[in-house]
Every structure is written in structure tokens, then in C-alpha cells.
Specification:
Blueprint: H1 2-16, E1 23-30, E2 33-38, E3 44-48, E4 57-59, E5 65-77, E6 86-96, E7 107-112, E8 118-122, E9 143-147, E10 153-158, H2 159-166, E11 177-183, E12 186-191, E13 196-201, E14 206-211, E15 215-218, E16 230-233, E17 237-242, E18 248-252, E19 263-268, E20 275-282, E21 285-290, E22 296-300, E23 316-321, E24 327-334, E25 339-342, E26 348-352, E27 369-374
Antiparallel strand pairs: 1-27, 2-3, 3-5, 4-5, 5-6, 7-8, 8-9, 9-10, 11-12, 12-13, 13-14, 15-16, 17-18, 18-19, 19-20, 21-22, 22-23, 23-24, 25-26, 26-27
């Protein structure tokens, strides 16, 4: 704990030496915006998870009841902020546990191959059979869609069914694909429900690349357990990126009790034979990205504990990790960010208000979900 405190203090001291970055809102009015990625032609696309709807409801693995709608989308955003967002693919399935659509689940992330094909992961949060009878397109939940940007569906890989059959981490079959990376010859998916990353071959064969079992952490005081007691904490991998060094990098949200500084970035061998801890001391990681200098950018939903006091969540942070391990906090006033991409212009693009279901008149959510352009030095 003393070492962690020292690391956080050093992190804050380092950030104080840097001027605040230039932050520009380039898109507004988005519906639960999550992942974003640049296509090979330089166009920027964001997934909108949608706000569920008034269709049939199902019980998720966390015991919340979520209702179905077809409000998810894939949207093109102008990186310059000169043009309004344009929804390229509409009507994708979405689930929301809140009647107002806050925190909906649907299209969670997008990645592009070198030839311009897009892979989109569809969130879910339950066992595969729970999709049956929910809605016309509910069969797409828990899957990876390979699509053209004109909306044509090229192929589908059923992550939820694979996880239900194989369940790589014991403790209940629950699939919630959240992160995706396209590497030569395959697609890699981070499943936050399965606590694993999966590899999808060109023929749509799915294999488990790496599993992330629970680890023991100190029990939070509100549980009133004996001094020194520990409890298991799930890993909850939310994001996977190609490190361009032959390895994959995985960021974890962590599960209950969501300790501050408890999330790691892992380095995974291409064949999954080795998993190393690359960086420690983060809180609730939701996205990763590398720049051309192999500097890692880590996006956190929040920077405090979510159980006990003070509460988790806002503000979220964007942190840069240099190859030598030095860190810089680039932005620490984000609200439930959901996705991250580094542009060829050297700026970071971040979805913000990532749990907000479109514009809400008045107050802090009048702009709905947004995309920010954060200038980097």
C-alpha cells in the first residue's frame, strides 16, 4: 500500500509539470457512445450502444432487468468537428436496465482491418440462451459482427455461445464482449463477462487465447470481516489492443470491490502461452491505445473506489505510460468515458458521457454523449 501511495503521489507530481491539454468537443448528441476507431482512410467511427427500448426484458447476470430495443448504431464522426455525426448503420440491438436508457448495452466497440473491414463487438451480459425470444435482432447480442460501413453484414462469430459451452473461467457462464482488435489473420475479443480474451480465425473458429482468473484482495471495511481478511476479485478484461510488437495488451476493469489502483494492464503472447503484467496501479480501465512512439494510453472510467467512501466513478482519466514506465495524467475530468483512439494528427480521441442516452435538455447532459479531441504534446 505504501508503494501504491508513492506511485500515485509521483503520478500527480508528474502531471503538475505539464500544461493542461487542449480539449475540443467534436461531436455531440450521441446515444451511449463507447468504442471508436479510425478506418484506414482516416475516417473516425464510434459505436453507440443505444438506449434499449420498450421491448421484452431479460435478467442479466448481475440480476438487473434490461429491456430490448433496436437503438444501437455505428456512427461516423468528423475528426475536425466541422460536420455533424452521421449514423451509417442503424437499428442494432440494445439493452438497457434503466427506463431512460442510461448505461445501455449494444454495439460496444469497433476495430478495422487494413483492408477496411470493420469488426463490431455486441455487448450482452448474460448467458447465451437468454437471447431467445427477446427481440428480432437479439440473436446478434454477444456476437462479433464483421460489417462493411455501408451496413452489409459479412460474417458473425457467436462469442456468447462459445463462452456458454466452454466457460474458461469457472463461476457462471456470462458473456459480455466489450473490446476488439483486428490483427493479421484473426480478430481478438475481450469478454468482460467471461474474464477471457478469445481469438476468432478467418473461418470464424473461436478459441480461448487467455483467461484471467480472480485474485485475492483485501476485504473492504464495510464487509466487517476480520482484520487482514481477503476476498476474490474478478479481473473483468474490457479492452485489447495490438501492441505492434508482436504482443497483445489487455486492460481490466476489475470486479467487486473495485479497489482504487487495483487494475492492471497485461501483455499477452500472440499464442496466449504467456501473460505478463505490463503496468499496475490503475482504476477501472475501459480502453487502451498506443501511439507511433509505443507510448501506451490508458483510459479509466473513474479514479476512486466504487465501494465504501469516497464513491467510484467520475472523474475519469486519460493517462500516458512511456516505455520506461513514467506516467503523465493528460486529462482527469472525464465523465464515464468509453473509448479511445490516437489519430495520425497525434491527438487522442475519447468518447465522453459514455453512459448518457442522447441529449437531455438542461443540466450537464444537454449535449448527450460526446467525442473529445485531446491535444497531446
Amino acid at each position: 500500500m505504501a508503494r501504491l501511495s508513492f506511485m500515485l503521489a509521483a503520478l500527480l507530481a508528474t502531471s503538475a509539470l505539464h500544461a493542461a491539454p487542449q480539449v475540443e468537443v467534436i461531436a455531440t448528441g450521441l446515444n451511449n457512445p463507447r468504442g471508436l476507431a479510425f478506418a484506414p482512410n482516416g475516417q473516425l467511427y464510434v459505436t453507440e450502444a443505444g438506449s434499449g427500448g420498450n421491448g421484452r426484458c431479460l435478467v442479466l447476470a448481475d440480476q438487473r432487468t434490461a429491456c430490448y430495443g433496436e437503438t444501437g448504431a455505428i456512427t461516423r464522426v468528423d475528426p475536425r468537428g466541422k460536420l455533424p455525426p452521421k449514423r451509417i448503420v442503424r437499428g442494432l440491438p440494445s439493452l438497457a436496465a434503466q427506463p431512460d436508457g442510461f448505461g445501455g448495452t449494444g454495439p460496444q466497440h469497433i476495430a478495422f482491418s487494413r483492408d477496411g473491414r470493420a469488426s463490431v463487438v455486441m455487448g450482452f451480459g448474460a448467458e447465451a440462451p437468454a437471447r431467445e425470444g427477446v427481440g428480432r435482432k437479439a440473436w446478434l447480442l454477444g456476437k462479433v459482427l464483421q460489417v462493411r460501413i455501408d451496413g452489409r453484414l459479412l460474417s458473425v462469430a457467436d462469442i456468447a455461445t462459445y463462452e456458454f459451452i466452454h466457460n474458461p473461467v469457472p463461476g457462471g457462464a456470462d458473456s459480455n464482449p466489450n473490446g476488439v482488435a483486428m490483427v493479421p489473420g484473426r480478430t481478438v475479443v475481450a469478454d468482460a463477462g467471461a474474464n477471457a480474451i478469445f481469438s476468432i480465425a478467418a473461418d470464424r473458429t473461436i478459441t480461448t487465447l487467455a483467461a484471467f482468473p480472480a485474485r485475492m484482495v483485501p476485504a473492504p471495511p464495510p464487509l466487517s470481516l476480520p482484520p487482514g481478511a481477503t476476498i476474490p476479485m474478478q479481473s473483468v478484461p474490457t479492452t485489447v489492443v495490438d501492441g505492434k510488437d508482436g504482443w497483445l495488451y489487455v486492460g481490466e476493469l476489475t470486479g467487486f470491490p473495485f479497489p482504487a489502483g487495483g487494475a492492471n494492464v497485461y501483455r499477452v503472447a500472440p499464442d496466449g502461452s504467456m501473460v505478463e503484467t505490463y503496468a499496475r496501479g490503475f482504476t477501472n480501465i475501459v480502453a487502451l491505445a498506443f501511439d507511433d512512439w509505443h507510448r501506451l494510453y490508458v483510459l479509466e472510467i473513474g479514479n476512486g473506489p466504487s465501494f465504501g467512501s469516497p464513491p467510484l466513478r467520475p472523474p475519469g482519466r486519460l493517462v500516458r505510460v512511456n516505455p520506461d514506465g513514467n506516467r503523465t495524467v493528460l486529462h482527469d475530468q472525464l465523465f464515464y468515458p468509453g473509448g479511445l483512439a490516437i489519430g495520425k494528427d497525434g491527438a487522442a480521441y475519447v468518447t465522453n458521457n459514455g453512459v448518457v442516452p442522447g441529449p437531455i435538455p438542461g443540466g450537464q447532459f444537454a449535449a448527450g454523449g460526446t467525442v473529445l479531441r485531446i491535444g497531446l504534446d
